[in-house]
Design goal:
With about 180 residues, this protein is of the alpha+beta class. Among the domains are: about 40 residues, Classic Zinc Finger (Double Stranded RNA Binding Domain); about 50 residues, Double Stranded RNA Binding Domain, CATH 3.30.160. It contains seven helices and ten strands. The strands form five sheets. It has a two-stranded antiparallel ribbon with strand order 1-2. Strand 7 and strand 8 form a beta hairpin. The longest helix is centred in the middle third of the chain and has 14 residues. The chain is elongated. The two termini are about 35 Å apart.
Length: about 180
């Protein structure tokens, strides 16, 4: 059977099997096995729909409803890359993804001229130009935004490649690069 670390979780789980629904909606009388289900239901009476679909802007009362809805976009392949077949969750994500294939980098850093595929990447990069950046490479003087990015950057100088592909043995400086590579197998 299933195990639980808290007694309250076990009690909530038991209610599913016995059909016990101790939480009643004051608006319509509908009953629920747990408090969180009741609270989610009550939003339907208030007209609250705080969870928006990133693909079509449709709103939902719960994250569960939103997740169920988002599968429609994936199943229809509405945001599938025609180049590699990868399915994305929104049109904006597909636009950014396609730049991998086209090589388009429309966001340019005004400080150094380096170009980026996504505005988010440019904004992250621009932090490296800030005066007094806390993480500076002792080898080349480059300023970085975090200790983790400094560690990865320093591997350029040391040649260290600690992440190895178990399938082909190719090594990488960053785990993210290994993950991207493994998709090619």
């Amino acid at each position: 059977g299933k195990s639980f670390s808290r007694g309250s979780s076990l009690n909530r789980h038991r209610r599913v099997h016995v059909g016990e629904k101790p939480f009643a909606c004051s608006g319509c009388g509908k009953r629920f096995p747990c408090d969180s289900s009741l609270k989610s239901h009550q939003k339907t009476h208030l007209g609250e729909k705080p969870y928006k679909c990133p693909s079509c802007e449709k709103s939902f009362t719960s994250t569960k409803s939103l997740r169920k809805h988002c599968k429609i976009h994936l199943e229809n392949g509405a945001y599938r890359c025609s180049e590699c077949g990868k399915t994305l969750t929104s049109n904006s994500a597909l636009i950014i993804h396609r730049r991998i294939h086209t090589g388009e980098r429309p966001y340019s850093c005004p400080e150094c001229g380096k170009n980026f595929m996504a505005k988010k990447s440019l904004n992250k990069h621009r932090k490296s130009h800030m005066e007094g950046a806390a993480f500076t490479c002792p080898e080349c003087g480059k300023n970085l935004t975090s200790n983790s990015t400094l560690i990865i950057h320093r591997r350029i100088h040391t040649g260290e490649r600690p992440y190895q592909c178990p399938e082909c043995g190719k090594s990488f400086m960053a785990n993210k690069s290994l993950s991207k590579h493994r998709k090619s197998h």
